[in-house]
Amino acid sequence: MKLLLISNSTNPGEEYLGWPRQDITNFLKDTGVKRILFIPYAGVTVSWDNYEAKVKSVFQLLGYEIYSIHHEKDPIKAVVEAEAIAVGGGNTFSLVREMQRTGIMQAIKGRALAGVPYMGWSAGSNVACPTLRTTNDMPIVQPDSFDCMGLMPFQINPHYLDAHPAGHGGETREQRIEEFLAANPGVYVAGLREATSLQYDNGNLKLIGRHPMRVFRYGLSPREIQPGSDVDFLMIE
Question: How, if at all, do strands 189-193 and 213-216 pair?
Fold first, then answer.
């Protein structure tokens, strides 16, 4: 498999998909990819046409053509024929519901397992996990199930945040993940801070980006993983 799982598309004050552009370029280098199938289904407050246009403008600068699956008469055929696949961020529930409705969830999984480059940001990273149950998203819409592609055996919490506003009485992100693990003790959760990504290539999983990643496991103290580190232990079920 060849995966690039990006925590977030855009940092404050930066252009759309600004910070990960070099990582995307490096990821696709020497693959021979020219055209990338885009999955816009996580878009809720943006139309799929506008979402496609926004992503297309960035990838054109990188030398790649973007075309969106929502124009395709046969979405499964489009996945089977894709040179590479990019899944945009937004609402994970909406994304999963539409991927299940169209049948592309299993089709994309099969292509990724066959080595077709797969990249996703935010919700697009969530759906590479076994389930969507560590998403941060609202609104909640009902997919057929919470099951996702399971391209890796661990869960990702994108946009992982350490801050806890003064006077706020709700749980921290860490506490919510610990609650998830109390109910699901046999899985790792990777708290993927913004401006970081996980890249899987040639059987190796690595953290890239600007910040450490926080890894959670039931009964163990959280671990801080530095950028550039191999994190292959996360791939062991």
Answer: antiparallel
Question: Which pLDDT band, with edges at 50, 70 and 90, does 137 fall under?
Answer: confident
CA distance linking residue 7 with residue 195, whole number of Å:
7
Please give the angle made by the CA atoms of 26, 32 and 36, to the nearest 5 degrees. 80
- Say if CB 134 and CB 157 are below 8 A apart: yes
Is 201 known to be catalytic? no
Residue 165 has pLDDT above 70, yes or no: no
Show the domains of the chain with their CATH numbers: 2-235 (3.40.50.880)
Could you say which of 9, 122, 125, 197 is catalytic? 122
Active-site residue flag, 122: yes
Among residues 68, 125, 137, 197, the one annotated as catalytic is 137
Would residue 168 show up in a list of annotated catalytic residues for this protein? no
Does this model's pTM top 0.85? My answer is yes
Q: List the catalytic residue out of 23, 159, 211, 229.
A: 159
From start to end of the chain, where are the E strands? Answer: 2-6, 35-39, 65-68, 85-87, 118-121, 155-160, 189-193, 196-201, 204-209, 213-216, 223-225
* pLDDT at 237 > cutoff 80: no
Q: List, for residues 167-189, the tens digit of each pLDDT value.
A: 766 678 899 999 999 999 999 99
